[in-house]
Amino acid sequence: MQITLKNLTKRFGDTVAVDNLSITLASGKLTALLGPSGCGKTTTLNMLSGIVPVSSGKLFFDDQDVTGLPPEKRGIGLVFQNYSLYPHMTVLQNICFPMEMNKIPKKERLARAQELAELVHITPLLKRRPSELSGGQQQRVAIARALAKDPEVLLLDEPLSNLDAKLRIEMREEIRRIQRESKITTVFVTHDQEEASSIADEVVLLKNGVLQQQGTARLLYEEPQNLFVADFLGTPPINKLTGKVAGNQILLDGSDIKISVRLDGKLKDGLPVILAVRAESVVAQPQEPQFEASVIERYAMGKDELIRFCVGSEQQMRVFVPSEITVSEGETVSLALKTRGVFLFDAESGERYA
Questions:
Q1: Which of 149, 161, 184, 249 has an alpha carbon within 20 to 30 A of 172's alpha carbon?
Q2: Where are the beta strands (DSSP E) in 93-238?
Q3: What is the pLDDT of residues 178-215, one digit of tens each?
Q4: What's the start-to-end Cα distance of the chain, in Å?
């Protein structure tokens, strides 16, 4: 089931929660709606489900216009953040309930419930009630119940946010497995960029209800269209060094450091810009140094160390450095930038120049 949003807009009074959103979500794939709190991702999901009416624009499931259809006629399965299981029912009864409402014969729905229990790995739990389950087990039951309707689309609203860190990793792998085995078009809402990157075929990144970029997580990381995209993805966050254009170089603020950049078009001298650099895109003690910086702090990060440098008199940057390179706090270290993972943005608009 391909999902198409055409100029989709949602207003709550004077507030525009989703602003003229036009995207296509591929059939049989898992798409993550990603962004900070208040960016419109849950509102978009709720418009997909029919829970929230559309202010303007159109919504299509394949070629069918579902903009005005109620939720029960859209062929969707919905899993909320709190799972919303029926506490007085067993796991089996929870899974069977949607099928019972659809008047599916008892023998058929019991067989289907067994299939779904096997798919989500909860067969031994069918006689338990929700209060006897862990958070991860409750989530599996909620997914099985959503799939019991044989939906064309599965919608997941922050389904991992109530789980601890270890279980969150396990469950996102499980959601990915379930989605691949069921081949159901899935939309997954999250504010966690690592979560989105780890399981989604494609990421839709929103800010203030406006689409910032759509593509694979790798594409957004390696080729961000604007500063917001570059800054939102990556751990630690991308280094943002302010400066001004000086010919084919960037003069960093608070220093006499000049960094050469490849510009497609000539930029006006003195234009305020941001040189954004990934922590792994800096080489320490290179053969051809570009500038020097002093060590402020060091952090052990597995096989590498993360070092915080002072660049000039007023800026800082974090850099991954191999553990075999020994540096001390206060020491001055020569650095150079790689080509990959280095971007230039307009300081005011965030537009990408290079």
A1: 149
A2: 153-157, 185-190, 202-207, 210-215
A3: 999 999 999 999 999 999 999 999 999 999 999 999 99
A4: 37
